[in-house]
Every structure is written in C-alpha cells, then in structure tokens.
Design goal:
The complex is a heterodimer of chains A (116) and B (111). Chain A has 116 residues and is mainly beta. In chain A, 0% of the residues lie in helices and 51% in strands. Chain A is built from no helices and 11 strands. In chain A, strand 4 (32-38) and strand 5 (44-51) form a beta hairpin. Chain A starts with a strand and ends with a strand. Chain B is built from no helices and 11 strands. The model of chain B has no long low-confidence stretch (mean pLDDT 92). The chains are: A mainly beta (116), B mainly beta (111). At the A-B interface, strand 4, strand 5 and strand 10 of A face strand 5 and strand 10 of B.
C-alpha cells in the first residue's frame, strides 16, 4: 500500500517552455504532498508543500511564480516549471503520507528534467 | 524542520566490512527517520525513531537515537553489494512541513 506515482519519469524540453509534472497517491488520500528537488550526488531540498484546496507553501528562495503547484484533488498534485532554463535541470520528486503529520513519507519515482 | 548534519559524505568499504553513518543536530529532534536511495532511484523509508535512547534493528541494520535526541546513527553489519546507495536521515520537525534531510552518506562497496 501507500503508492505514490509520478509522471513523467523524464522529460527533455527547450529553454523557455513549461513542463508539468504529476504526482498521484494511488491508494490513499493525501491532503498534503511535498515537492523536493535533488541535484546529482546531493540531498533532497524541500521546495514546497502542496495543500489540497489551498495555496502551496513555498520554502525560502523558491520562486512561486516559476514553480506553480496545484493540488486540485486529494490524490493529485502538479508541479509546473514555467519558462524553464538549463539551471532548472534537476531531479524533482514528490512525496506524500497516508498517515498523520510527521509520518514516514512515500516518494514517487521522480522526474528527471533536462532543459536544453 | 531543523538542520541535521550527517557524516561522512562518502564511505568506501570492502564487502563484508561494517558501515556507520551519523546524524547530529544542535537542537532536540522530535523524531528522526532514515531513508535509503539506490542510484537512480527514489528514497525509500527504512525506519522512524521517536524515543530517547531508542535502538531498533532490521536484520543487519541497527538504528540508534541518542539519549538527548540530538543524534542518531545507522550501522550496517557485514555489508553486501545490495547495501549500495545513499542513506539519509531526516528530521520531521514536529510541524506540518516536509522532512528536512541530512546531506546523506553515499555508501560505496568494493567487492
């Protein structure tokens, strides 16, 4: 149980275009989902907390107008990287928990974004 | 979440040797979680420690939470090639925020 599905697994896009990444909780409802970013050989950095039915909470230094988050239902959150640039190339991972706050997280498989 | 310091960043061991990674915080942690990320994969939850001085075992893995709840360790006995990956500790922070991850320890095993 507690499966989180993320799509696409990888994407290559041209500079200036936008990319949407989907994160779904397949067998549980998630009022909160988390979006992380990971550079090669580095740790996971929390970008934002996605809240169902309300605005996302962004971490300091993360541009909310660039990384648009929509959490329209209890099983789906989307992250849109707008006007992507090569420096946005990274591994983006979503996570959610079927449990209460501070419960262990289940991660999606991640999306490797390459901006050319 | 609070900042957790994790060492070492890299650890090379011969297969069969033991391995330990350490996490430290300057402030008290509400609970600490450990995750493993295989190369090219996503983090997978291993265990959560909540109580002061808690010790938990999973086969060859031993997890400890310090008495003051400011440090934690993961020890692997007799490493195997399947243990390769990056081990992260993570602080739940006690709030609604996502986890704050340590920098991770990359375990490299030489056969």
């Amino acid at each position: 149980g507690a499966v989180v599905s993320q799509h696409p697994s990888w994407v290559i896009c041209k500079s200036g275009t936008s990319v949407k990444i989907e994160c779904r909780s397949l067998d549980f409802q998630a009022t909160t989902m988390f979006w992380y970013r990971q550079f090669p050989k580095q740790s996971l950095m929390l970008m934002a907390t996605s809240n169902e039915g309300s605005k996302a909470t962004y971490e300091q230094g993360v541009e909310k107008d660039k990384f648009l988050i929509n959490h329209a239902s209890l099983t789906l959150s989307t992250l849109t990287v707008t006007s992507a640039h090569p420096e946005d190339s990274s591994f983006y991972i979503c996570s959610a928990s079927p449990g209460q706050r501070n419960s262990p997280l289940h991660f999606g498989n991640g999306t490797r974004l390459t901006v050319t | 979440g609070q900042q957790v310091m994790q060492i070492p960043q890299y650890q090379h061991v011969q297969e069969g040797e033991d391995f330990t990674t350490y996490c430290n915080s300057s402030t008290t942690l509400s609970n600490i979680q450990w995750y493993k990320q295989r190369p090219g994969g996503h983090p997978v939850f291993l265990i959560q420690l909540v109580k002061s001085g808690e010790v938990k075992k999973q086969k060859r893995l031993t997890f400890q939470f310090g008495e003051a709840k400011k440090n934690s360790s993961l020890h692997i006995t007799a490493t195997q090639t399947t243990d390769v990956g990056t081990y992260f500790c993570a602080d739940a922070g006690g709030g609604a925020d996502g986890l704050t991850f340590g920098k991770g320890t990359h375990l490299i095993i030489q056969p």
